[in-house]
Each structure stands twice: as structure tokens, then as C-alpha cells.
Amino acid sequence: MLELQEGVTLSVIPTQKFKTVRIFIRFTTTHERRLASQRTLLTSVLETSSAKYPRQTDLSAQLAQMYGASFGMNVTKKGNLHQLNVAMSLVNGKYLSDERLLSDGVDFLEEVLFSPLTKDGLFDEATFELEKANLIEYIESVQEDKQALAGLKLQELYFDTSSDQGVPSFGLAQDLRETSNADLMKAYQKMMAEDQVDIIVVGDVTQEEMAQLFSKWPFSQTKRVQPDIFYHQDFRPVVSEQVLRENVTQSKLNLAYHTDIYYTDEEVYALTVFNGLFGGFPHSKLFMNVREKESLAYYASSSIDSFRGLVTVQTGIDGQNREKVMHLISEQLTALAQGDFSQQALLQTKAMIQNHLLLSLDNAQALSEMEYMHAWLPNTRKTPEEYIEKVMQVTKEEVQQIAKKLRLQAVFFLEGSEKHA
């Protein structure tokens, strides 16, 4: 990793696996409720126009000229962080005998980020209003995806003491409605001046040539923030519960467990194996017993969040089976705590974790994410072989200890209103 200036880093992953070069730029700041929706709108405005390319068709034409390069922006969140992502993939010019292609791609990104389409110190008003309306419509449409809605409601319930953490990465429609063009410009200026910036390039390129290209970018020489990546929330002895009734045929029962295990903890390897046995894979207890054997769920799975210390369970069920499913999920957790799983299941889980990791090594975005984590948490840097070895060393007893640590904290139930009536 090379620090181009304070708070702006460049990491190059040289590889001949791909015929393309992938450029990934991440602007990172603390996740805050109102800022989340503004930064999401910012991605829409910036990726549709710029001073040199005032219309979306102009941007598309330039991408087509670069042999069909792909370009896009989005937002994500990880723990305490809000991340605005910029990604471009273009064919390596070496295979086209076009030495300018890579620098053209970097110039395109510089234009989009540093020269937005503005007038009198604000974003182009027509673009701002159109993208704002489109984003509000999109955020409101998420309510129609009941599986996504249940996940968001569980998050809101679990983090009910934090107005920031309970909000999704794309923010809230109500905050977006209150966002003015001036607010958006302020969010843009704040991002460009204060965010930690990580530039990660994957492809058959060298650090020297990429440093030469990116060192020309006119980043302001300002002090940039690097917030703590982890969000810690204490366990509360009372389980938070919420029931929402809607006219849906399939009810959703989602649970959140407090773990207090984080990405930098040694226990995270055992947590990963536990999750595979609990609900992470098709041979897991939730899948096999709740969905297959008892036929009480259309889907049943679990996932871990090692940046906020929790495990979540997601199920789609018939509303009348709610208590049965709750009991059965609890039984699977108890079974794991008591060591009621075979050596074969343990080995199969470890093998699947290994396969997932090895497959990710053929994905440029996955490699970028790994490099980002290494930059933020250098003490966690491990080769794939070292990580696999840690997973393989996890014992049955360690998995049992993880299961015993989980404590139910939140229950969200989306119930079909017709059936309830």
C-alpha cells in the first residue's frame, strides 16, 4: 500500500488472471443517518453527468469509446462506516495495443469526481431534482420487497438506541425529501475534503504506473478522518419485539442475537464455522431441520456481522407457525451448544468455507474488499492459506462455546394481515 498523501492510499494487486483492469475507489466516513441518504443521492448525480459530459448519453458514449468500459457508483456500510464506492472495469490496453486506454479511464474518473455539472455553486438543478425523485421512488419501493423489509426492520429494532445504526446504507426517504441542492453540495465538498480515500487497482499493472496516474489528482491537502470501523452495542436483558401486519401471503420471522465477537477477535474463525453449521449452508441445521425436515419455512438461514457483533436469522413462514418456528430455531442453537453435530458436518462446513474463499480469489471485487480490510486493519492481514489453516483448526468445543455465547436480542415478525384477521 502506498500513501499518495495523508488519508489517500493506493493499493495495487498485480495479477494476470484478468484481461481487464478494475479500478475501485472508496470514500469512507462515519455512518450517519442524514448523511447516508445525501451520499446515496450523490452517487446518482455524479454518475449521470459532469462538466465535460453534461448528459448521461455523453458519459455512455465515452465509456463505449473506451471499448465498452463499465462504470458505476453505490453506497455500502460496514460497522461504523459509510462507504461511497466508485468502480470501473476496462480492458487492459496491452491486449488492444492501446497504451492510452488506462490513462483515459483514470482521466474519466477524475472528471466525474472532481468536475461535476454545476451552476452558481450548486449541482445542475434539473439533474438534482430528477435523481432525487428517482431515489425517493426506489427507497419507497424497497417496502414492497418483504424479505428486504423484514431485514431492515430487524436492524432498526436491534439498534433502536442508535438513530444512525438503525438506518440502511441508502438512508431514509423522509431525510431525502428534506435535502436541498445546497445540502448535497455541502455533502459532496465534505466527502472530497474529509473522507478517507482508498484506491485499489486489480489487474496486470504495476504500482509505479498507477501511482503516476493517480498522483495527478487534485485532492485537497486536508486532514482526513479514519473512524473506528467497529460499532459496539451492549447486550440488554430485555428482548425487543415488533409485529407488523401487512397483506402478504408469506410471513417473515427474523431474529437477531448479540455475540460480542468482532472481526479482529480470534473467535471469529469459530464464529464463521458456527454460522455454517447453524444456517449458512444447505447442510446447516436451520435449513435441514426447519425448512426440509419439518417443512415449517420457505427459507431459513443465518448470517454474521462481525463489525457490529451480531448474528441474524431470516425465515419465511406461514404466520400460524410462528411459535413452532421460534421453538425450533432455539432447539437448533441448543443442539449446537450441546455438541449435537457430527464430525462429518464440521468437516463439510470447513470445506465449504474454504471453497468460498478460493472462489473469491477469482473475483476482482472480492480481492478489492480484502485489500481494503487489510489497509484498515493491517493486523488481520493473512494469506488465503493462513486463513484456511485458522478455519481448519476450529474444534467442536469452540463451536459449542460460540453457540452458548449467542443471546437473543430482537425479534421482528411480519405477519400476513388477512390470515391474522
From TrEMBL:
Q: Which Pfam families match?
A: Peptidase_M16_C (PF05193)
Q: Name one GO molecular function term.
A: metal ion binding
What Gene3D superfamilies is this protein classified in?
Metalloenzyme, LuxS/M16 peptidase-like
Quote the InterPro entries the UniProt record gives: Metalloenz_LuxS/M16, MPP/UQCRC_Complex, Peptidase_M16_C
Q: Which residues form the Peptidase M16 C-terminal domain?
A: 182-351
Coiled coil regions, renumbered to chain:
none
Q: Which PANTHER family match?
A: INACTIVE METALLOPROTEASE YMFF-RELATED (PTHR11851:SF186), METALLOPROTEASE (PTHR11851)
| The name this protein goes by in its record | Peptidase M16 C-terminal domain-containing protein
Species whose genome carries this gene: Enterococcus cecorum DSM 20682 = ATCC 43198
